[in-house]
Amino acid sequence: MPRTRTTKKLAQRIDLNYFKREHPLRHWRFLLSVALPALAVVWLAWYGIRSDRRVYSAGSLSAAHAVLTKQCAACHVTQGGFFSEKVADQKCLACHDGSIHHAAQEFTPSCVSCHTDHRGSIRLAATSDAACTQCHADLRVRALLSGGLQVEPKLVGASQNLVGRGSSANFVRNIDSFEGDHPEFAALRAGQKDPGTIQLNHYRHLQPNLLGPNGSRVQMVCTDCHRSATDANAAWPYGDLQSETGAAKSVSASGAKPDPLVSGSSRAYMAPATFAHTCAACHSLQFDKRLADAVPHDKPEVIHPFVVEKLQAYIATHPADLRVPRDPSRDLPEKPIPADYRLLTPPEWVAERTAEAEQLLWRKTCKQCHTLVFAEGAALPKVAPSNFTARYMPHAKFDHSQHGLVACTSCHVAATNSQQTSDLLLPGIATCRSCHRPGTEAAESRCFECHTYHDPAQRKPVHSNFSLTDFLGSSVPAVIQK
Amino acid sequence: MRIDHTHKNWLVASLGIFGVSALLYGIYRIPASGGSMGGTALGLAFGSAGLAFMIFAALLGARKKVPVWRVGRAQTWMRGHLWLGLLSLPMIVFHSGFRYGHGLTAVLMTLLIIVVASGIFGAALQHYMPRVMTREVTMETIYEEIDHVRAQLREEAEELVTQATAEKEKAAAAGTPSSIVTSAAAGGDEAAPLRNFFESELAPFLANPSARGQALSDAAQARNAFAQLRMLVPPALHTTIEDLESICEEERQLSLQARLHLWLHGWLLLHIPLSLALILLGAVHAVMALRY
Amino acid sequence: MIFEELKQIQRQPNGAPVAAEELLQLSVFKDVSPQFLKKNANATVWRHFKRGEIVCREGEYGSTAFYILDGKASVQLASPMAHVKAQGGPSGFFGRLTSRLTSRLAARQEDRREEEVDRRSIPIDAPVDLAYDHPVAELGPGELFGEMTCMNYYPRSATVRAETDCTMLEMLRNVLDVLQKSKPFRAQLDQTYRQRALDSHLRNVTIFRGLTQDFIDYLRDRVELLRFTPGQVICKQGEPADSFYLVRLGFVKISEAYPGGELVLAYLSRGDYFGEIGLLGGGGRTATCTALDHVELVRISAEDFRAMVEKFPDVRLGLENIARERQEANQERLRMVRSVPLERFLAQGLMEAQSLLVLDLDKCTRCDACVTACADSHDGVTRLVREGLRFENFLIATSCRQCRDPLCMVGCPVGAIRRRNSLEVIIEDWCVGCGLCAKNCPYGNINLHSFNVETEDHENPGHKKAVVQKKATSCDLCTEHAEPSCVYACPHDAAHRVEPRDFFAGTLGQRLGRAEKR
Fold it and tell me: Which of C58-62, C243-247, C511-515 has the lowest mean pLDDT?
């Protein structure tokens, strides 16, 4: 009879308790299931024994904090038992000053909410936009009744984007990002003009074949006049060192408190152009053809005695000049013809020449650039302040030196054609955005690139009391350990 | 589990979850590129979802330990295991903000990738292999009982041969003068070739079917061997030979089954232990990350 | 009567053959020919039992019957009244969480089966039935037990223990056979039955529960006790229906002829009844009834039956419902036989199955979750073997098929394996572990498992002792749940419990259709 397979025969081959027995496959599965998690625990325990908690760290510390890698307690504070060892602000503030952002800010976030470490060797100041937009995307401020800030709550809550503060400053309520809702720079908004009073025609100055010093012909470039305070010590092609003294005075005479960012040693900002450095070589301040001297570039109150003194000295050595010949060209019709010459006393001569010189200065030489105000009854005019704007954007940083790879006029496009002082030559936000935009092939466009959260004006020095051993532990070199 | 049209709802739901997550991630992440993801609210949500999915997936193992509990059909759990387990990878990747991590987190990410990859590999195997097994191994039995069944096959073969030999001997004994014509030359032992074949080829093969260089372990060679054997023995023994041949065939199929079975379930040796380690370390990571 | 006879008989030592002369002095042997008794001198022996001694044990195989001459014996089921407990009791989620599954038998008291109310007694191989709640009965002089074992070689259905010192005659089948034909003996047995067992027998059948004592007393003398030898036809399909039968002993096959063969509709055993369809319908017999072994029936004539259904409308209603159900089921089966003529399908016996556990091998990863699930829900004992023949790409797993024609039920000495009102075949608590059903099942779906149980120690009263008890187990479809555990636990959607015809007819039909188109 051939072999047959029936259900019953097949079933009866099977030992009914087979599934209770251990089988190699299942056995190994069980062994490995115990062994591998156990291995994981051993691995963690190994770190635990050495109390090395770096294994739990999300990443290496920022370069500035890298020295603290093994000193968790330098930042982490046990708060409320085992389950919280977060970073406390007080630990940050032991070394850093976190000055307040704005008096009217609604709340003060914790340090780590913006400056998150353990993300590799990054700059902690490079915070995410979210840190800023958590407020600025829908800005609400606390009403400050005392102090300079007057907030009208209604306007703050209103839908309009621009909210007036007083009459001049505007601020924007909802900014999501630089490339998105960031408004045009305040200085460039509609109707804004350069407040400067120095008459300057950029167009004229950039023409070729200008008459330069000593009758030379020159082609001027931007950096002939626009330099940072640091570079001001280098040679100026159109400077006149004789006017240096006056130059310094003229800057200080502008009245405003000097901006450290402008006058400091960085190359970030262009220092205000000075007469001595940029104008003197071409623009002579000679006041009398008899004299080689030019007046100092200073206030009328200084110039007047200077002129009088110079003329008095001159007449003392040139008495012949007291005899003043008639100038036929000045004869007026229907008036008696004056004598051929007049003979003046020296004071009379000085007074007359002074009047002539000042007529020249006040009405022509000075006035060519400056705005002079002649007050009634006053003998001398007043020079209006230059209102030179060294930083157009007081709430943001800009560094010209970082932008050195591009020609000045590629951003300040309007400069070559500008004929009026009132023309604003500041590039607009669109110019910035052409490079500063999101993406890996573009320049940084996050808030921190231009704005500083912590108000620099409020910043105070911090005096920390750590010792090197606090951070380095026993690895401090013996030389330092006394 | 076979991935067929019955998975449509799970597929749609999984794609939905993935889509929503990717969208949330995109909305949240793109404007503020950089910064750590895990610690933010959305990052924590992704992390928790990922861990929850992993734990759910791991619970399938626990579920299998208590098959009688009526806590949802096993196949529902299996579907959940497949899809949510798969989803845990994007969740964790979103949680990490596409970073590999550092220290523990790097280990976790490595484990997760291996676990998910082995899972996908296993799912693919379990999708295709059963059909291969059904087609190739028609005489399969229970994997754990293969050795037991083999022992029985050995006995059966031995029994068949003994019986055949005994019958022949009896016939030879009974075959006195009248059958001289048929068996005189053969010396009365027509079953000898069968016996020899059994001892030299079949018995060793049945005793150790996995040994190399055996003719019977190859189907074609076995067919030849049996064809030769048939020529050596009288037709009366052919049914026995047929049975022996079928025993050999079964033996070969069982070898194949054992091999296929290892494929079907071997990957679990990697998948299960690693996933347990993953969940253990994942829990440690969750506690520690919330702590610091 | 018996006592008087007994006084005249000289007692012989235990095991000594009973002389023919001595036997002839007993009235029950009066009609038996002395020659026969002389020829079979050693077929009857004396048995003396001391108080407390065991006469026979349940589950043992034997070939003799006992006739009590003197003393009292108790009949009881020593097997613990328990079934292999399936999980899913009222213990609740946490209860299940904490308790580890172990192999055990659940005592009936702690875990009652749902349908238990239907049966209040256990049929045994004696003139009395055992009450379910207290499975002990008493036998006295003049009573015969062990008939079924003797005639049909079934295992002993109960344990008999001498209550007082007893004397019995142990006889072999040939003697019993002759005795059965002896009128006085029969008369005595009939008498005993009518007096002692008819009440409980009738009352055990659910639908007759409404009968009044008066009516039973009326029936007591009117019923007829009939005997049939194996293969004897009780009634034929198409004959006029003239009586209603209750099965007292043995198994009756109910079958219907259909073109090309015979279809078994049911096997009836003790406590079952038949013949109502013909009587209620007023026509002829709808099926042929054949005795499978030595069968004893209680016949109620058409007249009495009509009187009964008229008097007790509840009984009528019950019978009518049963009759309708049976007819519908029969129709269904016949229709099915005609609709799916697939040879392999039939060859594997799939047609007979009502419910198959199939594993889709294209999906099955052979993870064995179904087996562990089965074992877990049945106290560590699997009732499912993941091995068997294939049909198409389906493995027909070895697990009870709930056959329409349950061969396993034939021969159960205690009627412990039976079919519930729903389709599943279950093994009742009083299973004595004889293994006959496992032997009978053609598919290997019933297995015997040994359990360690504690029972009353009879040698040492008041103490318990551990004994190994065998119980037959088969798939119970996890009826306490909506879905069998194996199917529920399959993670790959491969395991299904299906009605084979519905499940395969569709695919087979489609395949056939396609083949024809080509």
Answer: C511-515
B9–chain C Cβ distance below 8 A for any pair: no
Give backbone dihedrals phi and psi of A375, rounded to 5 degrees, phi first: -80, 150
Which tokens sit at C250?
């043995």
Optimal mutation site among C99, C392, C488, interface B, most CBs of chain B within 10 A: C488
Q: Which helix (H) or strand (E) holds B122?
A: helix B104-136
Provide the Cα torsion B193, B198, B200, B205; round to 10°: 150
| Side chain identity, residue B179 | S
- 3-state SS, chain A, equals CCCCCCHHHHHHHCCCCHHHCCCHHHHHHHHHHHHHHHHHHHHHHHHHHCCCHHHHCCCCCCHHHHHHCCCHHHCECCCCCCCCCCECHHHHHCCCCCCCCCCCCCCCCCHHHHCCCCCCCCCCCCCCHHHHHHHHCCCCCCCCCCCCCCCCHHHHHCCCCEEECCCCCEEECCCCCCCCCCCCCHHHCCCCCCCCCCCCCHHHHCCCCEECHHHCEECCCHHHCCEECHHHHCCCCCCCHHHHHHHHHHHHCCCCCCCHHHHCCCCCCEECCCHHHHCCCCCCCECCCCCCCECCCCCHHHHHHHHHHHHHHHHHHCHHHHEEECCHHHCCCCCCCCCCEEECCHHHHHHHHHHHHHHHHHHHHCCCCCCEECCCCCCCCEECCCCCCCCCCCCCCCCCHHHCCCCHHHHCHHHHHCCCCCCCCCCCHHHHHCCECCCCCCECCCHHHCCCCCCHHHCCCCCCCCCHHHHHHHHCCCCCCC
| C365 HSE (CA, 13 A, CB side) | 25
Lowest-confidence region among A365-369, A427-431, A476-480, C307-311: A476-480
Confidence of residue A342 (pLDDT cuts 50, 70, 90): confident
DSSP code of C129? Answer: P
Q: Which residue of A has its CA nearest to B243?
A: A3
Q: Which residue out of B9, B68, B76 would a mutagenesis test of the C interface target, given it has the greatest number of C Cβ atoms within 10 Å?
A: B68
Whether B89 shows a pLDDT value over 90: the answer reads yes
Residues shown for chain B: 292
Please give the structure tokens belonging to residue A245: 């003294």
Q: pTM of the entire structure?
A: 0.67
CB B288 within 8 A of CB B64: no
What's the confidence (pLDDT) of residue A481? 55
Q: What is residue C306's three-state secondary structure?
A: helix
What pLDDT digit, counting tens, does each position of C192-201 carry?
777 767 777 7
What residues in A contact C368, CB-CB < 8 Å?
Answer: 19
Within its chain, how far is the Cα of C145 from the centroid? 17
Rounded Cα–Cα distance for residues A176 and A154 (Å): 22
Is C91 in CB contact (< 8 Å) with chain B?
no
Of C93, C96, C364, the CB nearest to B130: C364
Residue A456: CB atoms within 10 Å: 10
pLDDT above 60 (res B254): yes
pLDDT in tens, A9-60: 888 888 888 888 888 888 999 999 999 999 999 999 998 888 777 778 777 8
Q: Copy the structure tokens of residue A351.
A: 């007074």
Are B32 and A58 in contact (CB < 8 Å)? no
3-class SS of residue C426: strand
Whether residue C449 lies within 8 A of chain A, CB to CB, comes out as yes
Q: Given a contact as 3+ CB pairs under 8 Å, which chains touch B? A: A, C
Q: How far apart are the first and last CA of chain B?
A: 41
Question: Beta strand pairing status for C65-70 and C144-145?
Answer: antiparallel
Closest CA of chain A from B279, distance in Å: 9
- The answer to whether the complex's ipTM is over 0.90 is no
